[in-house]
Amino acid sequence: MAGQDDEGAAGLESVPDPVGGEVSAPAAIVPEDGGDHSGRRRPKGLVPLVVAVVVVVVVVAGLVGWRVVESRRHDAALDSCSRAVKALKGKTGSDRLAQYREAAGIKADQVKDAKTVVAMTRSVKHAEGIRQQTIRCNASMSTGDLNAAAGQAGRIDGEYAAVARAAKAVTASRDAKALDDARTALDGKKGEAARLLADSDGKVADNATRDGLQQAIGQAGQAKGDKAKAYQDAANALQAAIDQVNASVQAKAQADQQAAAKAQAAQQQAQKQPAQRQGTTRHRQASSNSGRRGSTQSRRPAYRPSGNRGGGGGGSSQVPAAPSAPQGGNGNGSGGHKVLPPLDTTHHGCNPDGSCGIG
């Protein structure tokens, strides 16, 4: 007994003292039947209530998570749709549509490669015509609608990308042909200018026009580059110089014609003057001769037939001799001689009754 007490004392001595003078509480003793001997009872519906609360929390958390995910999906769809529409507008702006329409109007005879025209026609048909697109992306649209709009914009964007490539090809082919045509036209114009420069020597009214043509020929030989406009401008300048030389040649030709016409008129006038002087002389001589003849006839005595004198002669008439000049008398019919009246010279030697003088 004494030994057991010693062991018990020794066991008690081996238990450490509480730190800081704290006294440890006695261990709780739980009954084997799980009963609560404290005198309080737990409610029977506590466990189902806790389960329901947990379920509600999980559902709410799920809804919140779903809304967050859906919002993110909607934002992503809106962003994708906006980017697709923006890219489409870059290919279907008013300026780009004008370029497509211009390219679509190019004919096969205007290009170097006719296949580019065929490709352009096919691409426009596949895009269902060249027109402004009206696809929109609004935040009020659902995620599905936004995705559908983005897909439509992407499809149309691809069609217009093909139109843009075809338009670029057909335009480049047209420019290549225009460049070749411009070079050929300039070469022909240079040959024409060189021939005119040689043929117009000494035939122009102003020789400065030929100097301008020579300068234009030199400038045309310096035209270069891959743009048709440079060669077209050179050809236009050369044509202007050609027109000036031609106008100067025509002006000199007209001046020469006028000078020749004046010289011919002066020569004809010089030839007419001797003939006019001869005609004037002849007219004066004729007038003088006519005057002398009239004067001679006026001095001739008028013939006056005499009637029957005395009743003899059986009615025969005798031509009397010319009356002699009166001798003596006082001129008034006295002296035994009849004085004749003065001759009428207004009828060129003939009397009013139609009788004319003899001789």
TrEMBL record:
Keyword tags: Membrane, Transmembrane, Transmembrane helix
Biased composition (Low complexity): 260-276, 317-327
Residue ranges of the TM segments: 46-66
Positions with biased composition (Polar residues): 286-299
Region (Disordered), start-end ranges: 1-42, 260-359
UniProt key word Nucleotide-binding: no
UniProt name for this protein: Colicin transporter
